């Protein structure tokens, strides 16, 4: 299970929140998340694939040239995991950082909690 949780964390960072192509992002959401998934982010709570897709797409549109980079190794414990990351222009210092924490059910992300260390300027 640890390996699957690590894979989910890294893929979510790149294939969902780091993906600019809407069709590829949606395919990743369907592959990585349960249908009843819940996203917890500072602006609020979003439930289901459509809401997650809309949020991730809108966020990506605010900074399409940013890259998401892991700042630590993914960690897993039972059915949960976490990954620290940064986001900013590729090759530069991150403009904001955070930690993703996930709860996994049936091999997919059932809940994602995004804790921001710093916010975009």
UniProtKB/TrEMBL annotation:
Instruction: Tell me which domain of life the UniProt entry assigns to the organism this sequence originates from.
Output: Bacteria
InterPro entries per the record?
NTF2-like_dom_sf, SnoaL-like
Alphabetical list of Pfam families matching this protein: SnoaL_2
Which residues does the UniProt record annotate as the domain SnoaL-like?
Answer: 16-111
> Would you tell me the protein name for this molecule?
SnoaL-like protein
């Amino acid at each position: 299970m640890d390996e699957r949780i690590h894979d989910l964390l890294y893929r979510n960072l790149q294939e969902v929140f780091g993906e600019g192509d809407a069709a590829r992002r949606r395919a990743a959401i369907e592959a990585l998340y349960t249908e009843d998934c819940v996203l917890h982010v500072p602006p609020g709570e979003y439930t289901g694939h459509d809401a997650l897709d809309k949020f991730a797409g809108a966020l990506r549109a605010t900074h399409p040239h940013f890259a998401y980079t892991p700042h630590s190794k993914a960690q897993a414990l039972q059915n949960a995991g976490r990954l620290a990351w940064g986001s900013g222009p590729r090759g530069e210092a991150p403009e904001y950082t955070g930690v993703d924490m996930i709860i996994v059910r049936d091999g997919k992300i059932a809940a994602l909690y995004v804790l921001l260390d710093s916010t975009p300027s």
